[in-house]
Amino acid sequence: xxxxxxxxxLVGKIALLTVVGLHASRAIAQLPDTILFGVAYYDEYTPVxxxxxxxxxxKAAGITVVRxxxxxxxxxxxxxxxxxxxxxxxxxxxxxxxxxxxIVGTPTYAIPxxxxxxxxxxxxxxxxxxxxxxPRQNMDITNPEFRRAAERVIVALVDHVKDNPAVIGxxxxxxxxxxxxxxxxxQAAFVKEMQRKFxxxxxxxxxxxxxxxxxxxxxxxxxxSVDASINASLSNAxxxxxxxxxxxxxxxxxxxxxxxxRPGQFITQNFDLSWQGYSYGVQPEVxxxxxxxxxxxxxxxxxxxxxxxLTGAGIAFGGDVARSMKNGKNFLLMETEAQxxxxxxxxxxxxxxxxxxxxxxxxxxxEYWHWATTANGIETYWRGVLTQDYQPNPTYDEAKxxxxxxxxxxxxxxxxxxxxxxxxxVSNTALDGFDAFRINTDGGIGYNQVxxxxxxxxxxxxxxxxLISPSSTVPLSDYKLILVPALYSASDDEITKLNAYAKxxxxxx
Length: 509
Known about the structure:
This protein has helices at 5-23, 51-60, 73-76, 86-97, 113-118, 144-161, 184-197, 201-208, 232-260, 288-291, 313-325, 350-360, 394-413, 428-436, 447-460, 492-503, and strands at 36-40, 65-68, 101-105, 125-126, 129-130, 167-171, 266-268, 270-271, 299-301, 331-336, 363-368, 422-425, 465-468, 481-483, 507-508. By secondary structure, it is an alpha/beta fold.
């Protein structure tokens, strides 16, 4: 396997930018002094010119913030290096006139057509082959040409909007992952990482048990693709490497924004959870606790069934994950549904219940995806606050009551802190190991099913918890009880810390 020198050089640059992004002196971000109430907004998608009317209706509903731009690279940069900021400027002007703040998203998770045509290698290679153009999140986030184009649009956008007083912060990318990247360049970089960790091939073979089925590697140049590996330990090491690519990529983006933004503006990201028809468990493709280190404030997307299926557990779990990313700091709910799927349209009173349930988890912003239902694309029937007629409806009317509540109570509820005595220990590494060897024959019970069965039982008993991970800096001694579900795989350091907690009198289950 031949490594791409361009890619390996990029990995070195990414690592440097990661260090810079994590450890360089930062301006102090000015985070909200009240609970923000908002929507994602896309003037680019609207079939008629109504940005002024939308802003007026938002103000009437008590909307105080919108997120824009994260999905519309092709509109913002219609040709390489040619920028059209008209939709951005119209939206910023309308929002500023109505006293609505703006979070600007870097528009890098959906690439423009010209970029895919210009360099087809930008499209990610997965186990099943190379991705086709059309869907979002179909690119190789390590590709040097993608990085060059992404840097150009990020810098141009931030430079253009940073001095607008309505702009309070930035969301870097969108629900970022490595997108199953197993391309030759990533495989080669993984081999380099294995060489760094295991200077001796004998050490590598022994650590992973590669004598099994003649998988032994006797020369580094014989290192095979991991696409069809039957060795779970090696596959899981590759998964960890892929998560590291996400951490580096987000730190790279945060570093670019931080080098150009107006001091005082904040940087966040809308992490998502594993998906089981709704937001469910620990995200296997991202180490949220490591990736969040480059951010000023953690952000999350949480979606869940409503109507008769609303339990509250999904809201609480997502909030506990988000709060744990920055070791107990408050977070921003970047996306949740206003109506969503037709069978999720909330019963009267549920939208308000959901909003305050998020806030009770330590959330400093409730933001709906999205303001109005789109007229095109695969999300045509995902309802926003408004539907396709853009007229007031029961959901909009209830949103107005939430807006009024938050105008009255937001400054009193912001930055509420939890002081839980119980923690649940979660781990991407344990998830990988457990899911490689699921405990029932049909594979239906995985790590997140075990975790959520435990978590949901605690929720029903009104036992509030923090979620802690190997990356958490909160002392274990802060908790009277720590529950450790399905710790299939763990480092010696983790085991030592957990044992020390128990020996010191902590209760460990």
